Amino acid sequence: MRPNAAALVVKTGNPIVLLSRWLLLGEWRSHPVRALVAIAAIALGVALGYAVDLINGAAFNEFSAATRSLSGQSDLQLRGVQGLFDDAVYPQLAQREGVAVASPVLELNVTVPGQANALKVLGIDTFRAARVTPDLIGTADPERPFDTLADDAIFLSPAAQQWLQVQPGQTLALRNGTAIVKLRVAGGLVRARAGQRLAVMDIGAAQWRFGRIGKLSRIDLKLQPGVNREAFRRALQAEWPMGLQVSESQDQDSRNNNMSRAYRINLNVLALVALFTGAFLVFSTQALSVIRRRSQFALLRVLGLRRAQLLRQVLLEGSLLGCLGALLGLALGYVLAAAALHFFGGDLGGGYFRGVQASVQFDVPAALVFFALGSGIALLGSLAPALEAARAQPAAALKAGSEETALARLATPWPALACLLLGALLTRLPPLFDLPIFGYMAVALLLIGGITLMPRVAALVFSALQRFSLGRRHGLVTTLVLARLANVPGQASIALGGVLSSFSLIVAMAIMVTSFRISVDDWMQQLLSADLYVRSASNGETGALQPAEQRLLSTAPGVARASFLRTSPLTLDPARPPVILIARAIDAADPARMLPMTGPVLPPSAIAADSLPIWVSEAMVDLYGYRLGQQVTLPLAMHPYRFTVAGVWRDYARQSGAIELRLADYQRLSGDTEVTDAALSLQRDADPGAVIAALRRLPFGATLEFSQPGEIRALTLKIFDRSFAITYLLEIVAIVIGLFGVAATFSAQTLARAREFGMLRHVGVTRRQILSMLALEGGLLTALGMLVGFLLGWAISLILVFIVNPQSFHWSMELHMPWLGLAAVALLLLLSASATALLAGLRAVSVDVLHSVREDW
Description:
Layout: H1 15-30, H2 32-71, E1 76-80, E2 85-86, H3 89-94, E3 99-110, E4 119-124, H4 126-132, E5 139-140, E6 153-156, H5 158-164, E7 171-176, E8 179-188, E9 198-202, H6 203-209, E10 215-216, E11 218-223, H7 229-239, E12 244-247, H8 249-292, H9 294-302, H10 307-344, H11 364-391, H12 394-397, H13 414-426, H14 437-452, H15 454-469, H16 476-487, H17 489-527, E13 532-535, H18 547-554, E14 559-570, E15 579-584, E16 612-617, H19 618-624, E17 631-636, E18 639-649, E19 658-662, H20 663-670, E20 677-682, H21 688-696, E21 705-707, H22 709-723, H23 725-752, H24 754-762, H25 767-809, H26 819-845, H27 849-852
Parallel strand pairs: 4-9, 6-8, 15-19, 16-18
Antiparallel strand pairs: 1-11, 1-12, 2-10, 3-4, 3-11, 5-8, 6-9, 7-8, 13-20, 13-21, 14-15, 14-20, 16-19, 17-18
Helix pairs in contact: 1-2, 2-8, 2-10, 2-11, 2-23, 8-10, 8-11, 8-17, 8-23, 10-11, 13-14, 14-17, 14-25, 15-16, 15-17, 16-25, 17-22, 17-23, 17-25, 17-26, 23-26, 25-26
């Protein structure tokens, strides 16, 4: 019977536990930097993912709560499909059987002079709202209790008062068209949520002051006890199938969720990229540790340690790295989320949750998920090294020079090829739940397949280089380097994998962001065909231009032609954000002059006589199934009209969908003659500055805002860069993790080769030559890793550009390569890898020659 290994270690206590602790602490004491790098990589991935989840969760929950507070205790809401509807509907609902209370509301995003954002103003019937939405009742001065009914009074939430810097008793100036409406701040809204910018006034006063006489935005319904809400909803919707929509509070939650879901999920997926790279670093750490301790494990096997015990030991080491990294990442993620919400708000650059003040709350379920991800992915990274340690034959493993045989299984190409093939097949599948689930899976499979294929690629490339160098005069350093890389491709591939995983993700994200940015710039150049753009307000929906003001703009000195535009919301699905209806002057025979069309268009002769042409954005095709030539019915001014889809155009501004129609058609059908924007083409020799000065002298000129195409493009790209700030941060993190991986891998391999360097020193190789050898090895390995990483990253970028983005955001783009930026990153990685290998070698060659080779005596 073989002696028990534990008996040789201790004579008291649980021997296996003490042996496990001795092996673990001994390894970490010997190589603390390598363990810390692996822990830091896992921590960064968990921190970014958890921070993004906390920020989005806090902002989304606060935004949804603020939205629900506007509905109060209502059971149903009746809303206009096109925003506003005739208030003649209200008395019908108030007297309807089954309705306990009907509360009319006029909801307007009012333009605030001098502010970048609009103020949400609600006009309410105080007596009705007291029973449905009591939180919206303003707190009036006790000496003026009837201010809630006054036609000049407005009540502001604390956040709105702070934002506008006004107090009760002061005057607030708001915009209606090109005129200024001055209202007295009569009090506050004490039950408004923190950060909610909200104003309330009497509904009659709101209709009069903002030119919405006879118009409502919604009617809140509170039903009598015992009424079947779903049946009541269906019956009510059947009476107004086109002009009005009946919704419940969960429809608002669904709308909020759909509005930002793709953005939130994409940020989470990008954050998990760092976690994936961290998992490979755990694999690299454990694989090198197992290779270095191969003879130690074999000796323990000879002394009686069973395979299962050795397997558990290696898995324990990897899982502890993951657990420590995950715990550190959760704490760091919480700090990052708190800082981001405090300094930047909760929209993360997407602009979905403006106007709310979210605070971070520790999310236990999400923390458990990310802890499981961090520790689980580290455990997964330790699985292959653990299996190798357990399967190794003790007799063979005790021999020096058997390290490469431990990695022989990695050279099998079939699992890698299977991953690559499966990933390619998944790119052909449609989205799942309106999300590119299969696209994400394809990216993961390509990364796994590419990294797994590296041993075979390294063997082929370096063997070919060695054969090519035969018969040619090369220095000693080059000969030794090529001989090692060709004969130990498994160990080389571990170093390659770190470079490959980080560089491929950097390449993929850089290509995707660059392609999107250039596509947006090209799109803006096509849309901005005029010389000067004019609007009465850059925010809100009360800054429109009347027909008389439009005529004055058209006939201003220096203006050759004026083209006007009108935008309005159109709700086609209560669970989705509204579609934007855009009316402008479009030549039906050649719409590509105004719109970036993505395919063929229908000529006017192909449009039916009882139908009018519309041109829809790509999102309408994905979300609502619109197709070229399809006839659809859309409500305008509560009346249904038939339209034909005459073309599909690219729109990067409205993710929820947009519909373009001719301005003349819109004005004739809706009776709405207001416009929101004007595009002015100037006379040949007109100076834009002189034209702007002339327009400012108009009676309403002081309220106008002017922009030239270059200014709009610069502002748009600035907003774009802010929206992708998180992506840029993730690219930097990927670079840092990649450099950490290179440093840890080369350092570990160099220390493990101390005997090799000692033997080389014995036969006359100098320290300088060994250091040159290490620098050249690092450069060649990094160059190959970057070459394959570039090809893999380019393939992943194709998935991101042509699959993930269209399925997530419903727009397409052209592929553009950021050659200069990629070259700079590649040069940085190449120099860093060579320097890291050189610095790691300094320690190895500093060991005494006799000491380094004593194990061979």
